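Most newcomers find our protein records easier to grasp once they have seen one. Each record describes a single protein and holds just a pair of labelled lines. A learned vocabulary of local backbone shapes supplies the integers on the structure line. Nothing more is needed to start thinking about how sequence determines fold. The record below serves as our worked example for the rest of this section.
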Amino acid sequence: MTVRGDGGRVGDVSPVHGAAFGVPYVAWLPAGGESAPLVVGWHLIDPPSSEAALATALPMTRLPARRAYLGLPLTGARSPQRRCSGH
């Protein structure tokens, strides 16, 4: 598993970006550091069609939970067009 990002400590408002077993994700940890359940969202092919777009459309910020949005194959960061264009 790899994690890169701009924050990610408990209570940060910045998301954690990473990849687990080749699957990209955007995740947030609950404020306060308490033990919390994990809620996972997978986007569809139609908009919102990436992990970041789903996180924006369905933020779930009031849930006292760890929130993770996963990228599906052939979309978002895993899109063949993105690989070809170097993004």
User: Anything to note?
Assistant: The first helix runs from residue 51 to 57.
